[in-house]
Amino acid sequence: MGSLFDMEAVAREQVRNDVAKGRLDEVRKALDNGADVNARHMSDSTLLQWASLKGHSDIAKLLMDRGANANDKDINGNTALHLAARWGHNKTISILLENGADVNTKNNDGYTPLKMATVGKHQETVKLLRQHWAS
Questions:
Q1: pLDDT per residue over 61-85, tens digit each?
Q2: pLDDT at position 1, please?
Q3: What domains, with CATH codes, occur in the chain?
């Protein structure tokens, strides 16, 4: 049983690595072969959060199409939208907002995605979030 768990952990880590590196075809194959679109990884992060952090909008779209939860929070209370906003990934932000991401959710520090964009000094991101009623 331990080896099965280890194999599953290795597979989860491989798909997370593929997401982080922007390997769309590999992520698609993993999902087609049963990878859990909402599985948790390092820092309790989801695949969507990794895609959003790295700005891989094509992978974020694929994950959303496969049922990823845009409002899942990691250990710090960050959603995918917090992470995309922090790094100014506007295309990913648009995909998240189109798929129900909560624009005013707060992380454990009380920061909204708008605050994260402000901290990151991403003025275009601030404008985009405000167009979606961010406060």
A1: 999 999 999 999 999 999 999 999 9
A2: 44
A3: 2-131 (1.25.40.20)
User: CA nearest 49: which of 69, 28, 35?
Assistant: 69
Angle at 74 between CA 72 and CA 78, to 5 degrees: 80
80-83 contacts: CB < 8 A, separation 24 or more? 80/46, 80/48, 80/49, 80/51, 80/52, 81/52, 81/105, 81/113, 82/107, 82/111, 82/112, 82/113, 82/116, 83/49, 83/52, 83/53, 83/116
Render pLDDT for 34-66 as a digit per residue (tens, 0 to 9).
999 998 887 789 999 999 999 999 999 999 999
What are 46's strand-pairing partners?
Answer: 40
Indicate the length of the chain as a whole number: 135
Distance separating alpha carbons of residues 81 and 103, to the nearest angstrom: 7
Whether residue 120 has pLDDT greater than 60: yes
3-state secondary structure of 120: coil
